[in-house]
Amino acid sequence: MNVREGELIWTKKEAVKSVLLYTLNLVILLLIAGLLLFWDNLGAFGQTFRENRANFLYVMFCTLLLVWILYFYFFFEHRRMLTDGRNIALVFTVLDFSVLVSFLFGNYLHIYARPVALCALLMLVLVGRRDAIFVNMVCAILLFVIDAFSDSSVTANSVYSSFIIAFTAGMIAIFFGNKAKTRFQIVGIGLIIVIPVDVIIFLLEISGLAGGGVSLPTEATGLERVLTQMGFGLLGGIMSAVLFLAFLPVFESVFNCLTVFRLRELTSPDAKLLKKLKEEAPGTFNHSMVVAQLAEACATALGEDVDFTRAAAFYHDVGKLHQPEYFTENQGEYNLHDELTPELSADIIRSHTQDGYELIRAHHLPQFLADVALQHHGTMPIRYFYAKALKMTDGELNIEDFSYPGPKPKTKIAAIIMIADASEAVVRSLPKRTPEDVEKAIRGIIEERMDLEQFSDCDITMADLSIIRRTLVSTLTGVYHHRVKYPSIRYKHADGKTTGENE
């Protein structure tokens, strides 16, 4: 029995494995919830458990209900999260960590000082906005259930208020954090979170004072208490951002996640592979920079993730580091392929996709970059060496012996880079780069790949291809624009000597 989600095929065996992994992570969360429920009485756990069995069972039931609702959310809305055990572990680790940290802040500092937006921020950056919204709701309800049935001294009003704060702060963090590209902007989001948190705290405390429901210490006035509570709210908002920035690199490394912050580091000139590419294969490096510019423009036009596209374009040809001198952009006047058979030349050229995949994985870089490096030529034939071989033989040739091994592009970003990569190379070789010539060349590239069914495994449409074509024509004519010819000029100095370009 197979379960399908778009192109996803989920076998019965994989489904059972997913449920088992999910259940294992659920058991860990149940243990954490039980631990927090009796946190203040762990020394007398047996007696406390007997006295509070009903509360314990209620919390366990609520936790089970919440987590299985989360499972069905992923099953119906984002099933790919359940097909990879690493994704399941990531979601539960974020949830476990956020609940534990929030509880400890509330228990040892103040309930309003909790970094309640931590879960939302981590899920937003590591997984995505839609999933972050749902997991944030689960986290807020879970904290509320633990607060409501734990043996703590906080008032009922504070528990209810904390639930509203956790939900609201998390949602605001998701909506504002979706556009955050720098760590400084995340700190700004921490300050934005403070506004609704402190408003809720202020209204709660004022209403309590007005109704006489809050007992005030003799050494503090009502206003001082309100300001103190709001100060804890300020701390909670800031700590959400601080803890997020502190632990995000850990989650990125452990789960090998490709976040916007890591992408910026990977596309830095100081990134190890890019630095090596610049030093050992400067022609390929420059080609990759232009392809990145083209792919970024196409991604923007299609509404795709620009940061992912740029990074994938930077790394798509790193496999050429294996033998850079065999690729045209790194050669001088002498071509090493003149000494080789067409078959051997084709083997060297097409191997750079697999070499790139292995090199990226060897450097523990994200899987997405490796996949694009492997897919960006699909199963296209290497026409130059196929044509060269045809001239050297009278028999039949198998074109697959002169083709890339694939696979074909699996994502729209991989398809964009396939087209941009070929377009840059072809347009660079044009004797005249008028908009008409560029448009004709790019149209031919796209049509050839359509004829060879290179886009059959990804969700790119004809409308998308038209947008890509127009974008590439506009961008490439700008990159290779016409320049006026500068005249040669000789300069006469005061001493009568002349210097200039004709000397």
How would you characterize the overall build of this protein?
By secondary structure, this protein is mainly alpha-helical. It has helices at residues 12-37, 45-51, 53-77, 80-83, 85-108, 118-126, 129-149, 156-177, 183-211, 222-255, 260-266, 272-280, 282-302, 306-315, 342-362, 367-375, 383-391, 412-429, 435-451, 462-479, and strands at 2-5, 8-11, 490-492, 498-500. Strands 1-2 form a two-stranded antiparallel sheet. A two-stranded antiparallel ribbon has the order 3-4. Helix 6 (118-126) runs parallel beside helix 8 and helix 15 packs antiparallel against helix 17 (383-391). The N and C termini lie far apart (80 Å).
Please provide the ordered H/E string of secondary-structure elements. Answer: EEHHHHHHHHHHHHHHHHHHHHEE
Q: Major β-sheet, in short?
A: 2 strands, antiparallel
How many helical stretches? Answer: 20
Shape: elongated
Key structural traits:
single chain, 503 residues, mainly alpha, two-stranded antiparallel ribbon, two-stranded antiparallel sheet, 20 helices, 68% helix, elongated
Strand and helix layout:
Layout: E1 2-5, E2 8-11, H1 12-37, H2 45-51, H3 53-77, H4 80-83, H5 85-108, H6 118-126, H7 129-149, H8 156-177, H9 183-211, H10 222-255, H11 260-266, H12 272-280, H13 282-302, H14 306-315, H15 342-362, H16 367-375, H17 383-391, H18 412-429, H19 435-451, H20 462-479, E3 490-492, E4 498-500
Antiparallel strand pairs: 1-2, 3-4
